[in-house]
Amino acid sequence: MSYLGRRLIRAAFLLVGVSILCFLFTEMAPGSFFDEMRLNPQISPETISSLRSRYGLDQSLVVRYGRWLRSALHADFGYSIAYNAPVAPLLWSRAKNTLLLATTGMLLTWLVSIPLGVWAAARSGRMLDKSVRVASSLLVSIPEVVIAVALLAIVVRWRVLPVGGMTSMDDEGLSQWARLQEIASRMLLPTIILTLGESAIIVRHLRASVLEVLDTPFVQAARGLGIGRMRLLFRHVLPVAASPAISLLGFSLAGLLSGSLLVEVICGWPGLGPLILDATLSRDFYLVIGGIMLSALFMVGGNLVADIMLLACDPRIRTGALDAR
Amino acid sequence: MRAKTASLIVALVGLHLTLLLAGFVAPCDPGAQDRDLPYAPPTRLHFVDASSWHLRPFVYRWSAGPDGYFENKRQSFPVHFLTGGPAYKLLGIFEAKWHLFGVDEPARIALLGTDGFGRDEFSRVLSGGQISVAAGIAATLLALLAGSIFGIVAGYYGRLTDESLMGATELFLSLPWLYFLLGVRAFLPLHLSPARTFLLLTCVIGLIGWARPARLVRGIVLSARSRNYVLAARSFGGSDVYLMWRHILPEVLGLLLTQAALLVPRYIAAEVTLSFFGLGVNEPVASWGNMLSTLQQYSVLVSYAWLLAPAAALVVTSVIYSILADTLHSRLEFRST
Q1: Contact, A64 vs A24, CB < 8 A?
Q2: ipTM of predicted assembly, 2 dp
Q3: Hey, are the CB atoms on A262 and B178 less than 8 Å from each other?
Q4: Is A259 domain-assigned?
Q5: Which residues on B lie below 8 Å from A299 (Cβ)?
């Protein structure tokens, strides 16, 4: 248990560190939200300075950080200037959609890459393995922007799937079931784009680690005992081979979140991506900081899940054998 | 194996030479607009006309008709090689007006069609490639410089230095890169001259990326610093800086090269992504990212497939670099361990 406790404390420190880093960056920033207003002759400098003091932008860094921490404790995470509302509810209404996309993407990624990785390793050197290797290294090297734009072009050109938004305009009259179908069909393209990029990485890692485990004495012993091929691969080899891949989970979540930001903007999915991009363009600092914090929170959460899975998968962690080494 | 390596080198050199000499290879000025020819499809190269075969390819002019462009076959224009054309600056220094190929006025040769302002997409892919690839390489150099300095220092001195530096890397690694990139970009001014944007972009991308190389370098340094020859050099009175520079850095070089090959395409993609979002290098200067950003309109995306050319160029560049990374990895790193 102390293993998880240590991880939790570390995660908390990490979040505080990220928030401090964010505020240091705002201090470096030469401009602010009100710069664009200053160009407008109809708004007097007095109005702008009163607005600045209303949002606390004229205070020192430490005071601003203190205020932000207090509002974070009240679960507000600052105040968005552009939307004139607390940041947290704004983010949350969008984060649900991003989470939906990212978790579906992650599930699909594992569903695709576990069988492919194990299978390719089990038949290493044959046609299937070669084609998996070529396809995955090609997909890894193609940037996600290109995959997204190209797939979108195909889909829009031949009208394969509906794109843009989460539901159609006239979704009021639809039944619950029809709405779900609508959402699922619009989710398909972004999820596929995310899965393509992500599963290529995981397949490569999984294949390598399965190959390594297949060489170990215990697998040869199991083979000698006459354990069936499928049972050997998925019951004996996979749990051992999975643990390096599971510790990749955190990184793969990072990839998925970055990827989903991009994909959301390109496909018009109403998640965090478009919100953060708009906030960046309008220099709505607190909203941007909130978005970064939320993404860090997701990452930390994902890493904790990975730790718990490792705990379940790897008995050495449970008994503390790794720490003793 | 040797043939493979040789073709890899040819591809690498060819790619960079083409981009470096973009002004010479491109037939047009990348900024020159032609409002009569927006979204013109790629110019077709012909070898056969009504009467006979020609060894030298020729082109027709596009004319706007009621249903799109058609080839105006009244007059043909042969393609000239090594011919004069619009003036440009070779490598940014020398005034020159020689081009690899071109056609006589008033015809234009647009191998990859034109964009919404009638600018030649081929010339823009080349000059945009200069910006994007240069940004990727510069950001990589920056990230590797910072990463190797911090990594060597952390691994060499250990203890508190090591822990605080590695804590910092964890902070940087715990954020999804695109969120981080957008965040940092949000705090910097939006409207800048292209040159300053370029500098800023490289700095931002490079400084976000230092953490991973720093960790990898540290790992190698940790094992290198207790090697016998390092200990011996230390016992002869070698200073810390001397030991790091002369004995530890060479151990890391293989890793740094491999990392460079891995990071360059990733940072090119980062620049492209930012410019795609309108946060990077702005018009009228071309970059692969801002060229692709016109495709955010579905109507453009659907109708003008040739505007995907920068994406194709990006794929080619990334694939070449990732093959390079694989080759370097298997040659340099496995040999040393």
Answers
A1: no
A2: 0.81
A3: yes
A4: yes
A5: 174-176
Residues of A in contact with B305 (CB under 8 A): 153
The CATH number of the domain holding residue A200 is: 1.10.3720.10
Whether residues A108 and A243 share a domain: the answer is yes
Q: Which B residues, 274 through 313, put their C-beta within 8 Å of a C-beta on chain A?
A: 276-279, 289, 292, 295-296, 298, 301-302, 305, 308, 311
| DSSP state for residue B305 in the 8-state scheme | G
User: Is the pLDDT score of A324 beyond 50?
Assistant: no
Compute the nearest-CA separation of A267 from chain B (Å): 9
- Picking from A7, A89, A22, the residue whose alpha carbon sits closest to that of residue A305 is A7
- Is position A314 within any domain? no
pLDDT for residue B140 is more than 90: yes
Co-location of A283 and A135 in the same domain: yes
Residue A287: its H or E element: helix A285-313
Q: Indicate yes or no: CB of A280 within 8 angstroms of CB of B182.
A: yes
Q: Which residues contact B220 (CB under 8 A, 6 or more apart)?
A: B155, B251, B252, B255
- pTM of the model as a whole: 0.85
**A197: distance to nearest CA of chain B, Å?**
13
* C-beta neighbour count of B75 within 10 angstroms: 10
A58 has a pLDDT exceeding 70 = no
What's the average model confidence in pLDDT over A297-306?
Answer: 82
- Residues A159 and A216 placed together within one structural domain of the fold: yes
User: What's the rounded mean pLDDT across residues A70-92?
Assistant: 79
Number of domains in chain A: 2
Q: How far is B272 from chain A (nearest CA, A)?
A: 8
Say if A301 falls within a structural domain.
Answer: yes
Q: Are A134 and A13 members of one domain?
A: no
Both A38 and A141 in one domain: the answer is no
pLDDT tens, position by position, B282-303 = 777 888 888 888 888 777 777 7
The last residue of one of the domains, among A59, A86, A113, is A86
Distance (Å, whole) CA B313 – CA B326: 20
Do residues B317 and B120 lie in contact, with contact meaning Cβ atoms separated by under 8 Å? no
CB contact under 8 A, A141 and B265: yes
High-pLDDT (> 90) share of chain B, % = 7
Chain B: residue nearest A163 by CA? B298
Interface test with chain A among B132, B171, B179, B180, by most A beta carbons within 10 Å: B179
Give yes or no for B76 touching A (CB within 8 A): no
Residue A322 lies in a domain: no
Q: Which of A17, A142, A259 sits opposite B171 (nearest CB)?
A: A17
Identify whether residues A31 and A79 lie together within a single domain: yes
- A70: domain range? 3-86
Question: Is A107 found in the same domain as A78?
Answer: no
pLDDT digit string, tens, across residues B225-272: 888 888 888 888 878 888 888 888 888 888 888 889 888 998 999 889
Residue B96's beta-bridge partner residues? B88
Q: Is A277 in contact with B277 (Cβ distance < 8 A)?
A: yes
Closest residue, chain A, to B275 (C-alpha): A145
H-helix segments, A123-216? 127-141, 144-158, 176-214
Q: Rounded to the nearest 10 degrees, what angle do helices A249-267 and A87-122 cross at?
A: 120
- C-alpha distances in Å from residue A113, one per residue of A101, A241, A254: 18, 13, 17
Q: What is the pLDDT of residue A32?
A: 61
- Closest-CA distance of chain A to residue B115, Å: 17
A279 shares a domain with A239: yes
Nearest Cβ partner of B301 from A152, A265, A296? A152
